[in-house]
Amino acid sequence: MLPRGGFDTKISSFSGPEIAGLKSKKQAVRIDTILKDDAQVTVVGFGLPFAHHGHISEAWLDSSAPLAGNVTLLDLLRQRSFSFIVDEYDKVMNAVWDESTLGPVFVYPYGNDHEWDFDRYEKLLPANKVSQRVSLILRCLLASSSLERTDSSD
After folding, report:
1. What are the distances in angstroms from CA 97 to CA 27, 50, 93?
2. Number of Cβ atoms within 10 Å of the Cβ of 49
3. Angle between the 132-152 and 118-127 helix axes, to the nearest 10 degrees?
4. Which of 46, 90, 121, 151 is at a distance of 20 to 30 A from 33, taking alpha carbons?
5. Claim: this prediction has a pTM higher than 0.90
6. Strands of 29-35's sheet in order across
7. Is 95 helix (H, G, I), strand (E, B) or coil?
8. What is the DSSP annotation of 6-68?
């Protein structure tokens, strides 16, 4: 995945010999993307293990077999610049590839403190529209915890 705000992109019409291999053979764009100094490409899952047992991609993922020539998948992902040829009009790709049209980065609303704290969760979960069932379960946990605290103080 390309990091948000961590790359510059140039989209231009493309008409090289490679266009003959595209579906439309009429219009294509070249997307040139360069990572900024502190940015890195990240991978969010390579797929299900053994989902396509015996497929050539299994060697690329599990054994770092070359994709083409001597280039492995890791070599490809470590690059600082990428070029894509897309079978689409430049106007469409300029709209699709525009980061300003993306919604905010998704973040769970629970913060970064994940230690179990009944008092904090008692406030946090209802504030984030937890279903009645979860709220009931939480109340039961809180009640049993209160009983445990009372029993342990005897």
Report:
1. 17, 32, 6
2. 9
3. 170
4. 46
5. no
6. 7-13, 29-35, 81-86
7. helix
8. SEEEEEEE--SGGGGGSSSSS--EEEEEEE-TT-----S----TTTTTT-HHHHHHHS---SB
Q: Is the dihedral of CA 18, 23, 27, 31 positive or negative?
A: negative
CA 21 – CA 9 distance, rounded (Å): 24
- pLDDT in tens for each of the 154 residues of the chain? 778 888 899 998 877 676 777 776 667 888 999 999 988 887 776 656 666 778 888 888 778 889 989 999 889 888 999 988 888 888 888 888 888 887 888 777 777 777 878 787 777 777 776 566 676 777 777 777 655 555 455 4
Q: Are 30 and 89 in contact (CB under 8 A)?
A: no
For 134, phi then psi, to 5°, come to -65, -40
Residue the block writes with tokens 């054994």: 63
Q: From CA 131, how far away is CA 126, in angstroms rounded?
A: 8
CB 86, CB 31: distance < 8 Å:
yes
